[in-house]
Amino acid sequence: MKISVKSGGVSAASADLLVIPVSSEPTKTGREAGPRLPQGVAGLDRGLGGVIAQGLASGDFQGRPDQRMLLYPASKTGQKSIGRILLLGIGDRNALTLDSVRRFAGAATGEARERKLRRLAILAPRARGLRAEACAGALAEGAVLGAYRYDRFKSQSSAARSPGVPTTTLLFDRSEGLSDLRKSAKEAVICAESQNIARDLSNAPGNELPPAGLAREARRVARETGLHCRVIRGAELERGKFSALLAVGSGSVNPPQLIVLEHRGARKGSSGGPLCLVGKGITFDSGGISIKPSAGMGDMKHDMSGAAAVVGALRAAAALNLPAHVVGIIAAAENMPSGTAYRPGDVIRSRSGKTIEVTNTDAEGRVVLADALDYAVKQYKPKAMIDLATLTGAAMIAFGPWATGAMGNDDALLEEIRQAGEETSERMCVIPLLPEHLKEMSSPIADLKNSGAREGGVSTAGAFLQEFVGGTPWAHLDIAGTGWTNRRTPYHRQGATGVGVRMLVAWVRARVQQNA
Ligand code: BES
Ligand code: MN
Ligand code: ZN
């Protein structure tokens, strides 16, 4: 998406849609004092025949967060061509956060797309307490995320889609530091486009994106950004002893794949292993022989949202040229019931040598991750490792769409992740892993069983995974609740959220700075 940054505020605007942030500060007496227009807008309004003043005089619009008012300047007034003006409420200007800025821009591009408008201009809110560069980044992110649609299967789309994503200009008042604002916006576009690619992957139906399809997409992203990509499948998986991954995939005609993406961006002489990101890539989860109920089963096409986040994060790391060595590892398989499927009661000898009794074929994510984590640890000896997985319905119940469940074996790493989540508004909720959780996963006949009681389902799954990471500093993120949404917000639509990409990029960046 094309986003440019200009100085000169609204006086520089020429657009099909100009979006203006309008605040409403509370007064000392606690009453709402609003709506308040940003500097320079009153002047513009006079040139446009007073359409804004007239709109505000109606009393319909107070400038509350997410409130909207659309206005049409009379066509003959003003020298500048401004087709429509959207007043967008931002509430108390002193309480603005980066996420409210992101939401503001998402609402702007969403509106432009809905109305099929080609040229969009957004006046940047003057947010006290937020750095202008950070604001430019949040605006660009929100704009790219808010313009997202998953419409590739709409037949008339090529005609109806045009003009598609609007060309967007961000208008800032001041001209100092313009190059910094541009740099920040450009990087944010890369990051948000990577997140949209993750959304595309997660939204893709199971028939369109079986494990080999996911591998093909990973290769394409690698080719476009200069990542190294290697795919292990078939006999090579057998030779590599990926028996757990193979077991889960054995019920499907679409064979499993282990996908490795690598960004070798570390400066020469930097010490230690890479940062490893491991993703659950179940391209469709029917539950297998322990089949799921049919209601909502179709949503399980996104059971590869962990994998999608890994692809997105690696793409961003490469495109941003981050000076870090990052390896993404994806365990891709389709979980299907059939005459060749793995069964409840089976015992699998996983790659690590640990045996797993299958008590429920629907607890397949942890089984494929067992092999992927073991491979990551032994092949790459990572400094730190994060896995992302739509692992448990229990995480959805516990945290809803509002937070990702985070756990692991290293408090410092968990704190880094929590912080990266705060910074990017991809919130993390850190929960403990107790010895009792592991005990719940013990089997009478094997080293572990793959499903325990319903109680503490998020943590027992985490405790299972911990058995495969050895001493590697590791965190597990259960994105079952955050990877998919039915709630529309200014920058989310129904469907995949691409959660994890922003947070992971921020985390890798923080790591780079730590080492610098
Ligand atoms: N993919 C599901 C978890 C899931 C549920 C993700 C809802 C997103 C939304 C996972 O493979 C699964 O089926 N987990 C089981 C585990 C149980 C059998 C121990 C679950 O949570 O019910
Ligand atoms: Mn399952
Ligand atoms: Zn699953």
Physical arrangement of strands within the biggest beta sheet:
8-9-11-10-14-18-15-16
- Unreliable parts: none
Q: What average pLDDT do the residues reach?
A: 95
Structural class: alpha/beta
Beta fraction of the residues?
Answer: 15-25%
**What's the main sheet like?**
8 strands, mixed
What's the CATH H-level homologous superfamily of the largest domain? Zn peptidases
Could you tell me the number of beta strands? 20
Q: Work out the helicity level.
A: 25-40%
Instruction: Indicate the CATH architecture of the largest domain.
Output: 3-Layer(aba) Sandwich
The small-molecule ligands in this entry are:
ligand BES, manganese (II) ion, zinc ion
Distance between the termini: 32 Å
Shape: elongated
CATH topology of the largest domain: Aminopeptidase
User: What is the number of domains?
Assistant: 2
- The number of helical runs is 16
Gyration radius, in Å: 25 Å
CATH class wording of the largest domain: Alpha Beta
